[in-house]
Predict the structure of Epimerase.
Amino acid sequence: MAHPLLVTGAGGVVGQSLVECFGPGRVIGLVRPAGNRPDGAAELIAGDVTRPRLGLDVPAYAALAGRIGGVLHSAALTSFTRAAADIHDVNATGTAHALRLAEDAGVPFHLISTIYVRRRDGSHEDGRARPYRESKRAAEDTVRAARVPWSILRMSLVIGDSATGSTPRFQGVYAAMKSLITGGAPVVPVAAGSYVDFLPRDHVARSVRALVDSGALGEHWITAGERALTIEEFVERCLGYARRQGRTVPRPRLVDSEMVHRLIIPAFGDSIGADLRKRLELFTDILGPLATDRTLPRLPDDLPGLGAPPDLGACLDTSLEFFGTRARLAATGTPA
């Protein structure tokens, strides 16, 4: 039997999806001592990517290095509200520590990265996404200098499972969904006609597995590409869910993110409430860099073990339904 992969961040949204996709016996999961503990891994090890040897003592580290067939590094801090130093410590320093294990073991290293590293032309570079973007760029630079075979897998926004909408945690795009559902987004800082790139977590995991199993090296993009929904479609799906729940919420105005940062917020200043300002800034940071012209590269449909992604509009509807049953949605909109 082939040696298992070590999946770091196995308790996270992507990590749990990878554990589920690779199946029993194929992975060893590295989780934070107090973190989520997913089912399906052959073994779970408590560790910390921010520490040398992943927080393991010397014998445990040596034993792990002798047992694995590769390192699939998905551990990351994706919050835009955390301190820049914390984000760098997990995403950049953590990558260096995980790569060191792969080099000590003499096995391939696969980095789960993000499409945020590719800044959209004209997008605002000084928002709260900047520390995250810079930390992932630094991580990629570290991997390119690796002394073992490597791959960088840049993935899109991740939503819930395509069939059930389930996800271990609501992050990223769900903040935008919530603002739209509750009527808390009078302005969406994305230019009309842009596309929002996202994929369901099970398809993302299958994409990673297909690449790893095929021995693919180098840099790859796991995106919707030309299948991405328009921002208008994204907004309409969210408003449609709100209507089905008996909410009447206003249709937001679509405005380029640069206008929000350079004109709207400075012009209105303190007259914009703190809560609305926070939502505008977070909305800009999350969706702004992901608004594309459908030119993002994507994996070929004929990659063995993958196939075309499912209908993304239907996937968004399913994720909205799951989100709505488990999240606290304030009654910002007017009941119908």
